[in-house]
Amino acid sequence: MKLKVNGEDRETQSETILQLLKELDIIPERVAVEVNLRVIKRAEFGNYWFKDGDSVEIVYFVGGGILDFKSQI
Amino acid sequence: MEDKLVIKGIEFESRLWVGTGKYKDFTETAKVIETSGADVVTVAVRRVNITDRKIENLLDYIDPKKYKILPNTAGCYTVEDALRYSRLAREAGVSDMIKLEVIGDERTLFPDVIGLLKATEILAKEGFIVFPYTNDDPIMAKRLEDAGAVAVMPLGAPIGSGLGIRNLYNIKIILEAAKVPVIVDAGVGTASDATIAMELGCDAVLINTAIAGAKDPIAMAEAMKHAVIAGRLAYKAGRIPKKLYATASSPIEGML
Q1: Closest residue of chain B to A72, computed from CA coordinates
Q2: Were B151 and a residue from A61, B181, B206, B225 both cysteine, which residue would form a disulfide, CB within 3.0 to 4.6 Å?
């Protein structure tokens, strides 16, 4: 399946948010996830199934507010 | 005698709030926060680096159980972006608190108050605890309060400028009219600036650059801690009126 993850095209076997986070070695408790501009609740990570072409944003807290536009969503 | 700041039932241990930007590393950030005595720590919301997973997580250094994490919408120039970042922040974090910034201009980083007011209204309705970063305009402070802001955060001077509190009189007018706490955000350059804000009667001060950019950030964090406490105590004690001429402190009686 083709996804856009944090602005980059990605070919993946992951079908749910939880699987994708595991693939990327990201702890689910520390991030928020948005799919096609909709914020997905953490409780739904396991049963949110991607569709081909979905745009996924994974964000977390950083030291702020430096205006680091490169990491801006 | 307790003199705790309470907002929406949340008790704040310190009237000094600190930002976490511009530090050398997370170890320094953690040490500064600890030294400052702050319990509110602002953070930004950014993309996780998915290619380099070795990058450390800020929350490994700042325990969210010990500190109140206040996410901001720094870098947002539109209402839509500010709403998007706020909703993500709520999901990433542990509370409904959001330090709302809608920036109007890259050079000054002054707030776009029209966008700020709209975003405050929407987020307050969605149950967010909104702390809007605004300019030192008493009318706008009132409008934000009416729109559901739980506090107002007027700037003392532009973000990172270190110019101090440029318009004491406006801050004073904001304080007189406000029914919500007033927290000076941005502009503090050194300890005396923080003291001045607190002497005016502000409820708290948020500082980032003045500490992070100091030659010795940890020493400056300590200076700020004392400055805020001194300012608050002086405010509560009540300063003497300013007079043009001298008033003797020693008695005239008994002189030769």
Answers
A1: B46
A2: B181
